[in-house]
Amino acid sequence: MAITRDNRWAAMAAGLIGAAGVGLAAAAIHAGGDALLRPASTICLAHAPALIALSLAGDRIRFSGLAALAMLVGTLLFSGDLVSRHVLGTGLFPMAAPTGGMTLIASWLLLAVGAAMRPRP
């Protein structure tokens, strides 16, 4: 399996989100903020490997690019809102974390549907 130019962005996003997840975990432990930073870290660290897998899947799984994009947006909204609440004392916008969470759920369902379908010829 190789990462192609078409889906390399998902692997790059996975690297950044994975790094953010580790940084957030360290911040939760050393700088406090366990209630907000720990779940933000968990979401990042759970979805970074999924983004790598989607970048490798390419055309073998239908909708893999759309699922990866939704996963990226959902992670950024969910984790970003929690980090914003910790650092700034206010969220990104009303309902940002729930919107991100619902987007993440939708991305996983989209992945399941795409995997159940036959790949494009």
Automatic annotation (TrEMBL):
It comes from the Bacteria. The keyword Transmembrane applies. The chain crosses the membrane at residues 9-29, 35-56, 63-83, 95-117. Keywords: Membrane, Plasmid, Transmembrane, Transmembrane helix. Pfam families: DUF423. This is DUF423 domain-containing protein. It comes from Peteryoungia algae. The lineage of its organism: Bacteria, Pseudomonadati, Pseudomonadota, Alphaproteobacteria, Hyphomicrobiales.
